[in-house]
Amino acid sequence: MMLRTCRALRSQAGSPSGDWQPLNFDASAFHHKTTSELARAFLVLRLCAWPPLVTHGLALQAWSQRLLGSRVSGALLRASMYGQFVAGETAEEVRGCVRQLQGLGLRPLLAVPIEEEPDSAAKTGESWYEDNLSAMLRCVELSRGLTETPGPTGNSFMQMRVTALTSIRLCKELTSWIRRPGSSSELSPERLAEAMDSGRSLQVSCLNAEQNRHLQASLSRLHRVAQHARARHVRLLVDAEYTFINPALSLLVATLAVRWNSPREGGPWVWNTYQAYLQDTHERLRHDAEAAHRAGLAFGVKLVRGAYLEKERMVARLQGTKDPTQPDYEATGRSYSQCLELMLNHVSHHGPMCHLMVASHNEESVHQATRRMWELGIPLDGPVCFGQLLGMCDHVSLALGQAGYAVYKSIPYGSLEEVIPYLIRRAQENRSVLQGARREQMLLSQELWRRLLGRSPRVSS
């Protein structure tokens, strides 16, 4: 069944050397899944598109544990959200999930489910950040061990969240200083990179003694992850976070880029994420791409629509500041299209020094990317790849993978206790993605009805 599905999808893709043809994102992608997997996917996506469940997810989880007990509540979660979106808890479970994906032409992008909780003293101290460092170093090892065939850049990928290694409070302080007119050059990426690489004590005048110590420790942690990733041939895709700390995050990512994205290192080893739903993204992306080119640095970009829309607008209202987001979904789509065009042109001109992940569940964006890649002569398995979430958008992922494009599935892993709060928060941040998965639900429904009625699958020739 799996082989038949793969051949069908390849026939839809057309020959890479011939005329460009749009891929068919239809229900044929689901033929390799069992009926129980289809039913679970349909149910979970329907539930995740229900706003009250997403909004009150953490409270409902606690209520379920009290009412049903941890064992029954955990079993229900494993059979639903956890089973749909998580690779597993042990390394062997993760490997099993990845082997299934690789059999379908897909590749892993591991994500450690870690995030800071500012109100929790246990999850903001230095020991917590050091534990997160250990978890990320283990993720580097696991990522390297998963991939037998080199990816589009010849290496494995994993996600990294900066605020798992440094505090949001420090990022706020740095952002406040960076945004001041004529801010000091003592916060330049070059200066921070020198201190990070040498391990020498760093003193920044806008920070107090404790904050300076935390900055030094944070730089050391970031450096150790990047150093280990480089040694193990794993590229780091830095997660996007909230705009109120974006300047600090951009500074820290630029610091890592100065050290690890130089031509002598064979970069880019550190990629930044750009969110198209922010009004200034196209200009920032253009500026950063040109700055990297002038500095002779490799440039890696993960392009997303964005996940924090409601929170960003709420913060802007509460603080009486300008809303940084695009006014509506259509404007966000236009922004994504413009950023995609900018980066694809940059890739076509700068080749191995510029890489792009088109991280999108939107079929129009994927069609745009594949068409422009063909027009610009960018190879299918070259410096441009695609990304979607595990458990979502399989009809797009499989069509791309079987057509020969490099496709990565973002894969969280870990225990139920670690991952479920992470998944609920990600669902809260990705409401528009989950509510926009109606076409995927329709395709899942079609395939379920086909099986229930005993009809033969229709495969386009």
UniProtKB/TrEMBL annotation:
Q: Which UniProt keywords apply?
A: FAD, Flavoprotein, Oxidoreductase, Proline metabolism
Which EC numbers characterise this protein's activity in its record? 1.5.5.2
GO biological process terms, alphabetically, are: L-proline catabolic process to L-glutamate
Domain Proline dehydrogenase, first and last residues per copy:
174-435
The record lists the catalysed reaction(s) as: trans-4-hydroxy-L-proline + a quinone = (3R,5S)-1-pyrroline-3-hydroxy-5-carboxylate + a quinol + H(+); L-proline + a quinone = (S)-1-pyrroline-5-carboxylate + a quinol + H(+)
Q: Record's family? A: Belongs to the proline oxidase family.
Q: What is this protein called?
A: Proline dehydrogenase
Species of the source: Chinchilla lanigera (Long-tailed chinchilla)
| Gene expressing this chain | PRODH2
